[in-house]
Design goal:
It is built from five helices and four strands, in the order αβαβαβαβα. With 130 residues, the protein is an alpha/beta fold. InterPro entries: LRR_dom_sf, PP1-Reg/Actin-Interact_Protein.
Length: 130
């Protein structure tokens, strides 16, 4: 049922936020979330905190964002999940291309290494200067 609800958000401009905290999300629902990100012109905030995301999710999210040049996402929280450095790096590159910019990026309590955190900080510093 949840996958169908999330899928409907992709084409419905009424919903601007998708919030999930402390709930494990299955692969079918995650696929629908990615589909929504790739299609929605009204989704502004996406929170998937402690949702059991796998390390490859940031790469998939980056790909979904690249398919939607009209995305208006300005807040993204993926805290308390297992994320890999390369996927997060690719996600940040894609986030920097968002039309309205980014107000919030929460990647706290993830499995990023210190090298990944430093790379993320450098990317975002470059983003704020342009």
């Amino acid at each position: 049922d949840l996958a169908v609800i999330v899928a409907s958000i992709a084409y419905n401009t009424w919903f601007t936020k998708l919030y999930c905290k402390d709930m494990r999300i299955g692969s079918e629902v995650l696929d629908q979330i990615l589909h929504t990100v790739s299609k929605s012109n009204s989704l502004e905030e996406l929170t998937l905190d402690n949702a059991g995301l796998k390390a490859d999710f940031p790469q998939k999210m980056a790909s979904a964002l690249s398919e939607n040049p009209a995305s208006v996402i300005h807040s993204l929280s993926l805290a308390h999940n297992t994320l890999d450095n390369q996927g997060v790096s690719n996600l940040i590159q894609q986030v920097c291309r968002l039309n309205k910019g980014l107000r919030l990026l929460n990647l706290s309590k993830t499995s990023l290494s210190s090298k990944g955190r430093n790379s993320r900080a450098s990317s975002l510093t470059l983003f704020t200067r342009t």
